[in-house]
Amino acid sequence: MQVIFDHIDAVVRPALRKYLAAEQGLTDALRSKDASATCTARQNVMLAARQAVDVLHHLSDFVIKEPSPPTLEFAKIKDVRRALDAKCVFLRTTEPVADVGLLRDVADAFKHHRPDRTTTVRVSTDVVPIGSGWGQLRLGEGKYGGVEQVIVTKKDGDKRALSSVLQNVFDAWVTFLGQPLPPISQY
Length: 187
Fold this sequence. Notes:
The protein is mainly α. The chain is built from 6 helices and 3 strands, in the order αααααβββα. It has helices at residues 2-32, 35-57, 59-65, 77-85, 99-112, 162-176, and strands at 127-130, 149-153, 159-161. The chain has a 3-stranded antiparallel sheet with strand order 1-2-3. The radius of gyration is 16 Å and the shape is globular.
């Protein structure tokens, strides 16, 4: 099990921290009103988003292939995701949220541009840094005040802040592994 914790500490947490730093860099660039800096910040946040999505989504593959105690032994990857999904709630409330599946769909969109399987995300360009208006995101989700951030627009039109999806799935992993939750956004 220590190998899993080491992987989370060496790979997953740094990718999530890098993504949050890139989101802050985008906010700072937008405030500066420097078009070149903003363009670069958008590129940086998307690259960091891809990495964070990839390593967090593929933690399931790592866990299933790593010799572990019986509580972490699974026959199939869908069994890992199902167990994780049972722990996934919206920003530490009691409201279940299907973000394990959404993260998988975002990872597929990033990898394939237009996923071959049925997903909730149509195309990779449905995951982009954009601003949001009042009421477009759930209360408490994402950056305050509608400032530009990476938003996932699902096929049904629902919009989600990628930062919240990542937080919810990370929290599900930490809970599933029986570890204490760090403060939100402190990976």
